[in-house]
Design a protein that fits this description.
Blueprint lengths: L6 E5 L5 H13 L15 E5 L10 H4 L1 E5 L6 E5 H7 L1 H12 L5 H7 L1 E3 L2
Parallel strand pairs: 1-2, 2-5
Antiparallel strand pairs: 3-4
Helix pairs in contact: 1-4, 3-4
Length: about 120
């Protein structure tokens, strides 16, 4: 079986971050294709344009925080979504999509097929 990959372009203007991320994750995974199999990475390339014009519902931009740990004792770091969005709007969408993909070895290949333009 040969894998046919197309390039799908998604415009994020005035769409909620989660709605864009679910659409992107579905296309990256290949669930929109009739021959979908969960153990085969047969998704398409995805380009997201106008990432800086995405909208946020409720108070997410102010209240949501991203966490990461430095692996040192007491090393839990917190960054607000607003700060991440102001520095790099593409990173907010990238983190949302990354959380929606399966947590296994297929995820790295799927994320490499994602390009986001602010």
């Amino acid at each position: 079986m040969t894998i046919q990959r197309k390039t799908i372009e998604i415009d994020a203007t005035n769409k909620a971050v989660g709605r864009v991320a679910t659409e992107v994750a579905t296309c990256l995974r290949g669930k929109h294709k009739p021959g979908f199999e969960p153990h085969i990475d047969a998704g398409d390339f995805v380009r997201v344009i106008n990432a800086s014009k995405v909208s946020f519902t409720g108070k997410k931009l102010v209240q949501k925080d991203y966490f990461h740990h430095t692996l040192y004792p007491g090393g839990l770091k917190k960054t607000s979504m607003k700060k991440v969005f102001e520095s790099d709007p593409a990173e907010v969408i990238r983190r949302a999509v990354n959380g929606m993909l399966p947590k296994n070895s297929l995820r790295n290949g799927m994320m490499k097929r994602l390009t986001i333009k602010a």
